[in-house]
């Protein structure tokens, strides 16, 4: 068991580094897009990377373990990607919507305890 971990660790680290690099590149390409697109990319890329890594490790030989892993990755993707898109849209609207409770020209209140100098 420990020898399997030792043999797989460099490949897993390489896959993690490649996934991180791909995510950075995709986020750079999506920098002018919506928050939903960025979050969907952040969710979809690791799921695809895990699926590809498991396929490479198994040698693309169809086994029950590979089928179970592929099915689990697909089900996770089916649930997480739409949720990420919806939460991305919600976070954008919450972030850019001005607060109606405080008028824009209202002075800032000082915290209790005289934490600000002067």
N-end to C-end Cα span: 64 Å
Beta-strand residue percentage: under 5%
Query: How many H/I helical runs?
Result: 3
Contiguous uncertain segments of 5+ residues:
none
Q: What summary fits the major beta sheet?
A: none
Helix-strand string: HHH
Helix content percent band: over 70%
Q: Number of folding domains? A: 1
Tell me the radius of gyration. Answer: 22 Å
Number of strands: 0
What oligomeric state is this?
single chain
Please state the average pLDDT score. Answer: 76
Structural class: mainly alpha
Shape: elongated
Protein model, in words:
With 118 residues, the chain is mainly α. It has one domain (8-94). It is 72% helix and 0% strand. It is built from three helices and no strands. The protein has helices at residues 2-29, 35-58, 64-96. Helix 1 runs antiparallel to helix 2 (35-58) and helix 2 (35-58) packs antiparallel against helix 3 (64-96). The longest helix is centred in the C-terminal third of the chain and has 33 residues, at 64-96. The protein is elongated and about 65 Å long.
Brief account:
With 118 residues, the protein is mainly α. It has 3 helices and no strands.
Helix and strand topology:
Elements: H1 2-29, H2 35-58, H3 64-96
Helix pairs in contact: 1-2, 2-3
Can you tag this structure with a few keywords?
3 helices, mainly alpha, 118 residues
């Amino acid at each position: 068991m420990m020898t399997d971990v030792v043999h797989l660790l460099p490949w897993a680290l390489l896959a993690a580094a490649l996934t991180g690099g791909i995510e950075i590149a995709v986020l750079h390409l999506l920098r002018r897009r919506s928050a939903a697109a960025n979050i969907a990319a952040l969710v979809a890329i690791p799921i695809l990377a895990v699926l590809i890594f498991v396929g490479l490790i198994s040698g693309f030989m169809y086994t029950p373990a590979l089928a179970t892993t592929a099915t689990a990755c697909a089900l996770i993707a089916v649930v997480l990607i739409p949720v990420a898109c919806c939460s991305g849209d919600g976070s954008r609207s919450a972030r850019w919507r001005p607060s109606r409770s405080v008028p824009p020209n209202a002075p800032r209140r000082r915290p209790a305890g005289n934490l600000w100098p002067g």
